[in-house]
Amino acid sequence: MIKRIVEISSAASLHLKLGQMVIERKDEPPAQVPIEDLGVLVFGGNSISCSAALLAACAQNNVAVVVSDDKHLPASLLLPLAANDTQTQAIEAQVKAPLPAQKRTWQKIVKAKVKGQAQTLAITGVENKMLLNLAEEVRSGDPKNIEAQAARYYWPKLFGTDFRREREGEWPNAMLNYGYAVVRASVARAIVGAGLHPSIGLHHHNKYNPFTLADDLMEPLRPMVDLTAWSIWRNPPGASNGDSEEQKLTKETKRAMLTLLTGKITIGGQRQEFIPAMHWYAASLRRVYTENGELEIPEWEALADTDPCGSC
């Protein structure tokens, strides 16, 4: 089933009624969305109230709930404690995964990420041969830190020599952060659905980060977010002639970024909706842990021709 991505960004009261999420706003008739249809629910404003029963129903249906802060950036992610019948078995295999297998899997992830960055540069009209060469140099565990070498070349080419990729940096950092957060939520949701634990990473290890595995798996997807952000940066929703005053995180730019989760992506040789593809992706990682399988990484070439601002 294709799951819906719903963002609530204006004042509203949400509660559960007969398996439906009911959205009530002042001077408007109530709206309803079946809980079973939801994949990701984003709370994008501070004037939203939500019942505990609704949150529990979201957990029971493996809905990722993202809560934004006063800057409209995602600040919290709520996931179910158990979304898979054989979770204990899968987590045990995850914890005991041999280091060589983890390193080989990380190699595949980094190589796919650098190739994705090369693809993004090519689409934006920038020379990408250096990144393609770097991708071929990635070895098990990425001991030469090719990922960082690629980033030093990539960011100035994509957004200009003055750009610095920072969590609290200037535009378009806020847009990138928002895009990464919603993709991270979808990946984390899929990880939990596969019976794995999102805090036990392949490469990322941080005792303060409960989603290190989600951060690992989303690396090859980051260039897809970057390309969408670049398109919005070049053609801000509602702006005329690239008016820079419009370059801020608005309802329109967030809606444009959310198109990432409604497009199609290729994995295992099949075209799928984004959220089901994430479940395929996470399930392949589970097979790495439990069956000595190989990670299947999503490919997003077909998204290159989409205009994220077309629906703004």
Describe the structure.
This protein has about 300 residues and is α/β, with parallel strands linked by helices. It has ten helices and ten strands. The chain has two domains: about 5-80, Ribosomal Protein L15, Chain: K, domain 2, CATH 3.100.10.20; about 85-305, Four Helix Bundle (Hemerythrin (Met), subunit A). It has a four-stranded mixed sheet, sandwiched between helices. A four-stranded mixed sheet has the order 4-3-2-6. Helix 3 (about 100-125) packs parallel to helix 8, helix 4 (about 130-135) packs antiparallel against helix 5 and helix 6 packs across helix 10. The longest helix is centred in the middle third of the chain and has 25 residues, at about 100-125. It is globular.
| Number of spatially distinct domains | 2
- The shape, in one word, is globular
Order of helices and strands: EEEEEEHEEHHHHHHHHEEH
Given the helix and strand composition, which structural class is it?
Answer: alpha/beta
CATH-wise, what's the superfamily of the largest domain? CRISPR-associated endonuclease Cas1, C-terminal domain
CATH class of the largest domain: Mainly Alpha
Share in helix:
40-55%
How large, in whole angstroms, is the Cα Rg?
Answer: 20 Å
CATH topology of the largest domain: Four Helix Bundle (Hemerythrin (Met), subunit A)
Features:
single chain; 312 residues; alpha/beta; Ribosomal Protein L15, Chain: K, domain 2; Four Helix Bundle (Hemerythrin (Met), subunit A); 4-stranded mixed sheet; 15% strand; globular
